[in-house]
Specification:
The chain is an alpha+beta fold. It contains three helices and four strands, in the order E-E-E-H-E-H-H. It folds into two domains: 72 residues, no CATH class; 38 residues. The longest helix has 20 residues.
Length: 116
């Protein structure tokens, strides 16, 4: 991002508030973080509902992405996500803490797909 930033939000990624590239923005989406200029001036506040006009202006600001309200898209089918989880934990899931960790991750994955 050259001219406009989303400061303070790169360090802690919030999977419940997805980053969306400008080409994927659609009217009706709402910002979950303010959009600010390099000098700290707030250009669009948190909660701003995007319109065609705002999307066009954001595109002119050299912004790579914005944070929007709503759940993040898991990015792959549920079955594939679960298969990857099983494959990653297969060598270690018999170790006492690892089986529990796998269960927690599985439950988290289920909630991601329940919201989408």
């Amino acid at each position: 991002m050259d001219d406009v930033t989303d400061p303070g939000h790169e360090e802690i990624e919030d999977s419940a508030m997805p980053k969306v590239t400008i080409d994927k923005l659609v009217p009706g989406m709402k910002l979950s973080h303010p959009l600010t200029a390099p000098n700290g001036l707030v250009l669009l506040s948190e909660g701003t509902e995007l319109t065609e006009k705002w999307i066009s202006r954001i595109g002119d600001m050299n912004v790579d992405f914005v944070h929007i309200e709503g759940p993040a898209d898991p990015g792959m089918p549920r079955e594939e996500m679960m298969a990857r989880l099983d494959a990653r934990f297969a060598p270690v899931e018999t170790r006492p803490p690892m089986g529990r960790i796998k269960k927690i991750v599985r439950e988290h994955i289920e909630t991601l797909y329940a919201r989408s």
